[in-house]
Amino acid sequence: MSEEKLSKKQKKALGFRKTKEERDELKEKKRKLEPEPEVKEATTTTEEPVVKKRKTRRGKKGKGVNGGSGPRFIIFVGNLPYDTTTTELTAHFKNCNPDRIRIRPDKGIAFLEFDNDTKEIQSKMELALRMHHTLLRNRKINVELTVGGGGNSEFRVNKLKEKNEKMLEDRRKTDDIKRKKKQETKEVPKGVHPSRLAQLE
After folding, report:
1. What Cα–Cα distance (Å) separates residue 97 from each residue in 1, 31, 101, 128?
2. Residue 151 belongs to a domain
3. Which residues touch 192 (CB under 8 Å, ≥6 apart)?
4. How do strand 139-140 and strand 73-78 relate by DSSP bridges?
5. Which member of 11, 71, 146, 181 has the greatest number of CB atoms within 10 A?
6. Which of 8-17, 48-57, 166-175, 192-201 has the lowest mean pLDDT?
7. Residue 77: which domain range?
8. What's the pTM?
9. Number of folded domains in the chain?
10. Is position 128 within any domain?
11. CATH number at residue 147
């Protein structure tokens, strides 16, 4: 009689509980039927531990892109036109000559990769970073340092912040040096009003 007073939801929940209880009973019966595995006593012989095979990166045998000889050097290029091709980027960055270019046309970004087996990698990276805010098909592109791997872990984000802050500081220093050189070489024409001089700059 108590079942008649139950709502549809309560009846459904009661039916689910019954089926769950039935499943639990079946599991217990199976456990009773299976023989328990024999426990081996610890032996004094040393056995080699089983080494799990690491996942590899697309046929590179776990060594990464540049043969596993140290870290990868990657530069992020953003604000690209969506139909940018590899040949256009290669031509734009011909002075730094990147080893690989990966383009994500759906996001308008690319990654320039440099192998660390070359000795002039520092100069190549600096040349690429100087291309920041240059025009590629009438779009001002962003060129920044990045660390490989993706994700938003705190360690990675902090590492990126440190690298980019250092890069911005270096850019400010070079801009200040250029500005000072420009002011030193600048000749002030005689007889020109100061407000007119400001417009000429």
Report:
1. 84, 65, 10, 9
2. yes
3. 200
4. unpaired
5. 146
6. 48-57
7. 73-183
8. 0.51
9. 1
10. yes
11. 3.30.70.330
